[in-house]
Amino acid sequence: MSISRSGDETGTKVSNGTVECSVDFRGKPSVRSASGGWRSSGFIIGAEVAEKFAYYGIASNLITYLMGPLEESTAAAASNVNLWSGTAAFLPLLWGSIADSFLGRFRTILLTSSLYILGLVLLTYSATIPSLCKDQETSILSCVSQVKVAIFFCALYLIAIGEGGFKACLRAFGADQFDEQDPEESKSKSTYFNWLYFAISTGILATRLISNYIQENLSWVLGFGIPCLSMMLSLSLFLLGINTYRFSTGGEGRKHNNPFVRIGRVFVAAAKNRRHASSETFPLLPLETSKKYRFLDRAAISCDLAEVEEAKAVLSLVPIWMCCLMFGIVYAQSTTFFTKQGSTMDRSITSTLLVPAATLQGFISLSIIVFIPIYDRLFVPIARSITRKPAGITTLQRISTGIFLSILAMVIAALVEMKRLKTARDHGLVDSPKAMVPMSICWLIPQYALYGISDVFTMVGLQEFFYGQVPVELRSLGLSLYLSVIGIGNFLSSFMVSVIEKATSQSGQVSWFANNLNQAHLDYFYWLLACLSFISFVSFVYFTKSYVYNSPK
């Protein structure tokens, strides 16, 4: 199969019914009418749905498994979930770099999906190992098998390694099937990101309803085995579309160079030429050069102007990215403390049927599924008629709206937790950690639903923003930047939990994250996150006012 590096599937041009600088999987020029567009992205969206069913089949109820069969404390389990989720969301930066530098997206997808499936197989196997081991002296079942724990965590992080590369490259590969030089396909690309997230949310909702129930009521082995089969289906769906995919043949000149080397060379050259006066360099530059980060213009003495502009484009994303990290911290709470909250509340539907606490995460997906069609078919046309912008509002306006909604979600979460604690006190349950607090779990639905609506604005906006604003060759990395917001957010959340746990449990005080949530103070933590999110929101708005969008390339 004569496919060159697949990391440059964009930047194509129309020529006599074919797409220039693009070939099919046989190495022949891509025919526009028979390749790319929705016919290709349909297979990719299907693969995304199956993959998300697999991933969230593990992630959404992981804290329950850690605190149940593995017998971890609340703080330790939350920390482990955040570390694992953070790793899975941070690794796309590494895989995106590998794909954009030399391996290519297609090959990266094949490699990482294989690692992903191997991890899921090992995870399912680990669940078959008995949870308890015998004490050698007393022959009493007293501790969790260390073999089980070791295999479990090895499998878990193998899943993270595979998932990190798979999701970054698959989404970029799907977007690359739309030629930006073709007006119709270019318009479809924005819609692609909306409906991709819609489809992903459908898969997540399905797994939260199915996998979580099976795990808590039937078997963890079956609950892990089904996601494994789903990931196998994902790879199969991706390979089914190979006849329709477009692969880039690469361009001439600088596109054969490592893009990271080019960008690094600009910064090194700017540092070396820092003593040159501005007047020695700037008059030599054409008028179309950007005026931001002018200190990099000194690199034009020894670097191509295109390379300088490329470095500026990447550097300008840093402040935006940093301001979004707080959203990632807030995002991490839905699979940890929200779930733990729900486990203490009245979860009964009937006298014999209890709703798994993790199932309420399905309301995030459900609100996304309901709101995306409203956004795409109602909000965008109305906004477009007012602003005259193709997407109705800019991607940065979309992201800022979502961040603001996430602040409201944390405020609601804090208020609900305050009511839960009051209910526990009123019924004398403060010292009864295993007792059910007589307060319906449905009180948590508003914060979950608002999370979902904020996702429609922020998460989809981040995908489109980072994909569109990085240089063409770095689009796997661009989507990785969006994913790393969630990854680093999970790391920071884990760090905050560890620090606060240590600070609030000294001198005999009750920790904010005590195992007995009726004595803990998750409400304090939620208020802290709401305040920090507001500061982040103000900073984000400040930086976006001076941001200059790059024209599509």
Automatic annotation (TrEMBL):
Highest taxon of source: Eukaryota
GO cellular component, one term: plant-type vacuole membrane
GO MF annotation terms: dipeptide transmembrane transporter activity; low-affinity nitrate transmembrane transporter activity; tripeptide transmembrane transporter activity
Ranges that cross the membrane: 108-127, 139-161, 195-214, 220-245, 314-333, 353-375, 396-416, 448-467, 479-500, 524-543
Membrane topology summary: Multi-pass membrane protein
Subcellular location field: Membrane
InterPro entries listed in its UniProt record: MFS_trans_sf (IPR036259), NRT1/PTR (IPR044739), POT_fam (IPR000109)
Keywords: Membrane, Phosphoprotein, Transmembrane, Transmembrane helix, Transport
Pfam family membership, one: PTR2
Recorded family membership: Belongs to the major facilitator superfamily. Proton-dependent oligopeptide transporter (POT/PTR) (TC 2.A.17) family.
Protein name (Swiss-Prot/TrEMBL): Major facilitator superfamily (MFS) profile domain-containing protein
Organism whose genome encodes this protein: Arabis nemorensis
Lineage, opening ranks: Eukaryota, Viridiplantae, Streptophyta, Embryophyta, Tracheophyta
